[in-house]
Write a structure and sequence with these properties.
With 241 residues, the protein is of the alpha/beta class. It is 38% helix and 26% strand. The chain has eight helices and ten strands. Strands 5-4-3-6-7-10 form a six-stranded mixed beta sheet, sandwiched between helices. Strands 1-2 form a two-stranded antiparallel ribbon. It has a two-stranded antiparallel ribbon with strand order 8-9.
Length: 241
Amino acid sequence: MQESELQHRSDPHPEGADSESAQAFVAFALESGVLRFGEFVTKAGRLSPYFFNAGLFNDGAKLLRLARFYANAIVRSGIAFDMVFGPAYKGIVLASAVAMELARLGHNVPFAYNRKEAKDHGEGGLLVGAPLKGRVLIVDDVISAGTAVREAMAIIRQAGATPHALAIALDRQEMATENGQDIPVSAVQQVQRQLGLQVCAVATLDDILRYLQRDTSVTMAAKELAAHHAAVQAYRQRYGI
């Protein structure tokens, strides 16, 4: 078996996250200001009580820790793949960092990413990095409408490779939209069912809710977080899948 093929292993969390690791990731996202609570308007026009901005994992130490969460979730998921692909722009840094951490764990795989516009000089083209071939794992932050995933899949197929799986930081577990209307499947379920990709998430909205339900008697900060639980739970009940 090739070094790049990750063996399937038994895991009670098939999307790649276990409870302890997911809780640690939620805490890390809060510490980094990536996960915030309040009132935020989503791309779908919903008023959300929380916001997740992976772009705020914006220094070397945070990126290193983020890559470790991704890589550990990917390995636990048992997804087999031959290389990593990062869609421009956020996916470029994520895929690079995840490939390095996978190598540190003993799974050295090639990686590539795309440009938004084809380069017409030098090496030219849309792609940078290793040639796209075999089963490709796409690495991104979150998925909403799935547009970026579809674009990445088209690039991968055009190069003669196979879009095989997707790794994301957070599964929002909420209804996707089509033509401005809610539909009874999430963006992750759309990717799984319609596009045929396996999906690995570091954490989910349910993990955020569990974090908010921790013992509130310890610190004032914990009590303040617990106060957001009702709003997030109501949002989950209204839009959740």
